[in-house]
Amino acid sequence: MTEHTGLLNVVDVEATCWDGPVPAGAAHEIIEIGLTVVDLGAGARIAKHRILVRPERSAVSEFCTELTGLTQDEVDGGVPFAEACRILAADHDAGARPWASWGDYDRKQFTAQCATTGTAYPFGARHTNAKLVFTEAHGLRRRPGMAQALEIAGLPLEGRHHRGEDDAWNIAALVLRLRERGAWRVTSDGVR
Asked: What residues does the Exonuclease domain cover (predicted)?
């Protein structure tokens, strides 16, 4: 199925992470949700959003801060995960609008965290793994990271890599490039 018109949410999350094993009692938890709205009909990125999420079972490690730039103090000012999911559904039409992420990590992290916390999954069934579509469209043997894909596509990396709001913005640029090539499509029905 090819999607040529309408709005698309491009989502990228950052989660707590460590340089080594997960500490006892901790878990990978979403700490930032970046969301860029793409108007596929107009071929434009039309909005950039950021939701900071306060982790409940883990802390932001020094490694995580080095990678993402996010600090514990910063995410302490965020909203609880359930509220972030409510915001996605209410303010960004996440349940009805198709969405995309770079790879399947973001979808799986939401699925797992919603199950663990008893939170309603905020997204609808139409999800696209943009990394898969990009890999196929370019005839690559290996699926590239987002930064490498930008190089392949001849696009600049805008903002800070591993910052959810900036990564979503850059992934949206890749989606638009795929759309220009006639390669943009939904890759799954979002079955969780």
From this structure: 7-184
In a domain, 122, yes or no: yes
**At 175, is the secondary structure helix, strand, or coil?**
helix
Number of domains in the chain: 1
pLDDT digits (tens, 9 = 90+) for 149-177: 999 999 999 999 999 999 999 999 999 99
Closest CA to 64 of 111, 10, 20, 109: 20
Q: Does residue 188 belong to any structural domain of this protein?
A: no
Question: Beta strand 7-15 with 99-101: parallel, antiparallel or unpaired?
Answer: parallel
d(CA 11, CA 107): 9
Contact 11, 35 (CB under 8 A): yes
User: Could you read off the pLDDT of 47-74 as tens digits, one per residue?
Assistant: 999 999 999 999 999 999 999 999 999 9
Owning domain of residue 110: 7-181
Cα dihedral 24, 117, 123, 190 sign: positive
**Sheet hosting strand 44-52, strand order edge to edge:** 44-52, 30-39, 7-15, 99-101, 127-129
Distances (CA, A) of 56 to 10, 46, 109, 113, 188: 25, 32, 15, 11, 31
**CATH number assigned to the domain comprising residue 160:** 3.30.420.10
